Structure formats: structure tokens, C-alpha cells
Amino acid sequence: MPKKPTRKLKVFQALFGFFDTVVAAPSQAAALRAWGTHRNLFATGHARVATDEAAIAAALEHPGTLLRRAVGSNDPFALEPTSLPKIPDLPAAMPALKRPAPTTAKPKAEPVRRPPADRSRLDAAEAALAELDDRGKREEADLRRKQEELDATRTAAQQSYVEARKKATAAVVAARDAYRKAGGTD
Asked: Deepest of 22, 29, 38, 140, by most Cβ within 10 A of its Cβ?
């Protein structure tokens, strides 16, 4: 019975987040599909052909399947890694900075303290502005009162005119009627 021809698989490796990943695939395009990306990670240097023998062996046992391990660990690649990524140790605390010994030649001069600024001009300007605002408000109120008086006078004059006109019109109508009754013509 003849053997089925098998496609030659290559093992590719890439770093994703906290995991180092490997996948056995026939091409870079197939590896990118397994990683779930359309960006060419090989062109940017984020993916490469695997060289670690243990990674290659693990990937070839599960062709086309993404295997992971925590970044920085030497654990074997697995479908579901159990280890956490190793964070490099923080550098030891920096030693305290050595300060030069004070020289006894000259003591530091006291900073010159200026006297507080004179606020009298500012206070006077603020008071003048407040007085100007108050005077403006008083003048506005006075003008408003005078306008109300003028409006009342105008209303009274208009009412007086209307009443006087009604009386004068009635007098003209009565005189015209009397004139016509007496035989006058227009």
C-alpha cells in the first residue's frame, strides 16, 4: 500500500503578549492564519523560523496547532501553559547619593526677603471701580424711574385727548344736526 504524500511542515515561532508561541505549518501564510493575523509578522521581524529543537519537536507533534509557553520560561510548549511569565528582577535599590561634605569656608547667605508689596494703589483702584459701578446703578435706576413717570404722563395725556376728542366730536355732530334741521346744507 503506497504512503500518502505528506506536506513538509516548518516550525515558526512568534511572541504574542506574555506568551512565546510555535506552530508547525506548511508555509508562513499558514502560520499567520494559525496565529490569527493578517499582518506579515515575518517581514517586521516579529516571527521567524524556530531553531529550538524542543520547540520544533513539540510543534511537529501537533501540526497546525498553536502551542504556547510563558515568556522567559524554559517550560515545554503546550496547548494550555500553566506557568506564568517570569518578570526579570528589578535592579537593587540605588545607593543613596553621596553629598559632598560642606566646606567651612563660607556659610550660605540668607536669601534676601523683600518687604510685602504695597497694596494701597490696588485698593484705591478697586474702590474707584466699585464707586463707579454703584453710581452707574443709581443713575440707571433714576432714569428708569423718570421713564416710568413719562410713560404715565403720556398715558394720562392720551386718555385725556381721547375723552376730549369724543366730546368735541359729539359737539360737532350735534351742531351739524342742528344746522341741517335749521335748513343749512353742507
From this structure: 22
Q: Are 23 and 12 in contact (CB under 8 A)?
A: yes
Render pLDDT for 140-149 as a digit per residue (tens, 0 to 9): 999 999 999 9
Q: In this structure, is the dihedral angle defined by the CA atoms of residues 70, 74, 52 and 80, taken in order, positive or negative? A: negative
The H-or-E segment that residue 47 falls in is strand 47-49
Neighbours of 34 (CB within 10 A): 19
Identify the CA nearest to 60 among candidates 14, 5, 8. Answer: 8
Q: Is the C-alpha dihedral spanning 22, 24, 26, 65 positive or negative?
A: negative
Q: For the sheet containing 67-70, what is the strand order?
A: 47-49, 10-16, 19-25, 67-70
**CB count, 10 Å around CB of 52?**
15
Cell of 95: 545607593
Farthest CA pair distance, the chain: 150
pTM higher than the cut 0.85? no
Residue 45, Ramachandran bin (φ over 0: left; ψ between -120 and 50: alpha; else beta): left
CB 19 within 8 A of CB 55: no
Residues with Cβ within 8 Å of 35's Cβ and at least 6 positions away in sequence, in order, are 14, 16, 21, 23, 41, 47, 66
